[in-house]
Amino acid sequence: MQHRLSPNMQACIDNCLACYQTCFSTAMNHCLEMGGAHVEREHFTLMMACTEICRVSAHFMLIGSSAHKAMCAQCAELCEACAADCERLGGMEECVAACRACAESCRSMAA
């Protein structure tokens, strides 16, 4: 029997994976190219933490882990922090939007 996902959970998984892809791509391409503040340890580490928590949150939901709520709550926090920092540095609108969409979705899933 296949594990069925609710539409809200599927949307959250999709948002998490989109955020993972967007943030990782932005970090590896835009940030590394820009240098300076974009590759300072605090910002770059935050982006990498955001990508990983998004990937793991999606994974927890896909496997049906009851711990997905706690993971999603943490994911929402990191995504908000990443969005704010990317917005502060500028030029990463796609990353900001992906992080905010993921944070909103994860907050709903954590509730």
Could you explain how this protein is built, in words?
The structure is a single chain. This protein is an all-alpha fold. Helix content is 82%, strand content 0%. It is built from 4 helices and no strands. It has helices at 7-34, 41-63, 68-89, 93-110. It starts with 6 loop residues before the first helix and ends with a helix.
Helical residues, percent: over 70%
Question: Which descriptor suits the 3D outline?
Answer: elongated
- Average pLDDT figure: 95
Count every beta strand, where a strand is a DSSP E run of 2 or more residues. Answer: 0
Order of helices and strands: HHHH
Radius of gyration: 14 Å
Number of helices: 4
Share of residues in strands: under 5%
Give the helix/strand class. Answer: mainly alpha
Contiguous uncertain segments of 5+ residues: none
The end-to-end span amounts to 27 Å
Major sheet details: none
